[in-house]
Amino acid sequence: MLDGWWSGSIERLCREAPAPVVEINQRKFAPGGAANTAMNLAALGAKVRLAGIAGCDEAAAELLRQLRGAGVDTAHVRQVPGVTTTTKTRISSSGQVLFRVDDVQRGLPSGALESLARSVQEILLDQQAVVVCDYGAGTLDGPVRSRLVDLLPIRSEVLVVVDAHQPHTWAGVKPDLATPNAMEAANMLGLKFDAEPARATVVVDHRQELLAAAGAGAVVVTLDREGSVLLPRSGDVHRTWARPVQEKQASGAGDTFVAALTLARTASLPLTTCVDLAQAAADIAVHRPGTSVCSTDDLCRHLEGFLDNAVDAGELATHIGRHREQGQRIVLTNGCFDVLHRGHTRYLNQAKQLGDVLVVALNSDESVRRLKGPGRPINDITDRAAVIAALSCVDYVTVFDTPTPIPLIQKIRPEIYAKGGDYTPGMLAETAAVENYGGRVAILDYVADHSTTAVVDRIRSGRTEPGGGE
Fold first, then answer.
1. How far is Cα 178 from Cα 167, in angstroms, rounded to an integer?
2. Strands 2-13, 49-54: pairing kind
3. Which residues are 12's β-sheet partners?
4. If we measure between CA atoms, which residue out of 223, 141, 241 comes closest to residue 179?
5. Which residue of 47, 125, 250, 254 has the fewest CB atoms within a 10 Å radius of its CB?
6. Which pLDDT band, with edges at 50, 70 and 90, does 106 fall under?
């Protein structure tokens, strides 16, 4: 489909009805839907082959021009006479979208569908990954679906990702990943989600039902402003948190998410890392007006932006005051976080879920040496702060050099102080400081086999299997 973004000024109402007259001064077009996913994949460095159906109209000409300009192989996009290329045009003024005009095709010629189905085997040739983008417009019904169901399950070397309005209808392809949004996940479960913050909890509680319905190796549920939830068949659930914009002037961030997720997984990155990168890419897209893409350079610049992201206590207190005015709860945790591992990321994701804003206080390099000895830290404070700040669950990073974070606790007075490890609140010197102003101490999971000490010992000894640690 083709996305149109038309903007103009409003100075009067029309005579025929109490409706504003928009004098258009700018027209922009961008590939939308599955074509937007293709554009994002190409911008991230993938070699992309796009298959589907379009018309022989001006919208198709513009769509194909932009796709080919981005390096997308469009040889398998069939242009069918008499078919209308779906075009969705947003009309806006002063940055506010007023309405959208959709020009859509109802029903597709059976001959076009059968022709596309006959080409499926050729389309899949030499591909490392396949993204099935099914918006319910009819292209993937009937013979095309049947052919994909026949071929994809037997191609074990191909990563299969399903991005569909009804993911359960694609269970037969046995996808590696399915990426429903919150509404699509609710429909799969026959439920209605109420409050936004509760949606993540609901999908986690129904993990097995979602996996079974999608027939997938893992399901990633995207939650718009609330980030996403990774539900693998085995192992830990993983959360990401979005960095949303106040005004909704963007479209297609979900396509960006799917593109980055697919490419990262095709590169054999760990699934949790793939989801984190996908969230970062979507955050970039959603902060841009219109239908946009995230390139490799965009993603690199975004991640490099976390290099000097630690804030001092005074600046942090100012930020915290603003969040409290909005009724948000502050969670503080602290640690060395030297060599980041799965135990850390699971713990930080749990800490984030205790409140609204997560602050991570890092021990300074000198503080780490006092605690761990002259061989530590492995990574200096600049690197440690950059890595922690890049996690979507973390809102602020600060550094402290005192023996305990008590001075920082007394300054920002977090509603919740979280600590990971085999502690009890009574064992922590910080507990009294937190409870004095009415705060709460929370003890989170401790993964002994994935402690930093164990990881460093394994590296130094040359062992590859997880070992014990303090």
1. 7
2. unpaired
3. 21
4. 223
5. 125
6. confident
Q: What share of the chain is helix, strand, coil (3-state, %, to 5)?
A: 40, 25, 35
Closest of 340, 342, 336 to residue 373, by C-alpha: 336
Torsional sign, CA 146, 149, 152, 154 = negative
What strands lie across the sheet with 330-335, from one edge to the other? 396-400, 357-363, 330-335, 416-420, 440-444
| Residue 466: pLDDT band with limits 50, 70, 90 | very low
Domains in the chain, please, with CATH? 32-81+106-304 (3.40.1190.20), 313-461 (3.40.50.620)
Instruction: Give the predicted TM-score (pTM) of the model.
Output: 0.79
| SS3 category, 61 | helix
C-alpha distance from residue 6 to each of 42, 89, 97 (Å): 25, 7, 9
Q: Is 35 exposed, middle or buried (0-12, 13-18, 19+ CB in 10 A)?
A: buried
- Token pair belonging to 450: 């994935």
Mean pLDDT of the chain: 89
HSE on the CB side for 213, CA within 13 Å?
Answer: 21
- Taking only the tens place, the pLDDT of each residue in 157-182 is 999 999 999 999 999 999 999 999 99
For 259-306, write each residue's pLDDT tens digit: 999 999 999 998 988 999 999 999 999 888 888 899 999 998 888 776
Residue 334 and residue 361: Cα distance in Å, rounded?
4
pLDDT of residue 448: 47
- pLDDT value, residue 347: 86
Closest alpha carbon to 358 in 319, 387, 386, 326: 319
Q: Are 33 and 255 in contact (CB under 8 A)?
A: yes
Active site residues: 255
Structure tokens at 250: 């963007």
Q: Between the CA atoms of 207, 213, 217 and 223, what dihedral angle is there, to the nearest 10 degrees? A: -60
Most distant CA pair in the chain, distance: 82
211 DSSP 8-state letter: H
* Rounded-to-integer distance, Cα 449 and Cα 455, Å: 8
Name the token pair of 251: 């479209």
Q: How many CB atoms within 10 Å of residue 470?
A: 11
Provide the residue type at 113 as one letter. L
DSSP conformation letters of 293-317: ---HHHHHHHHHTTTT-B--HHHHH
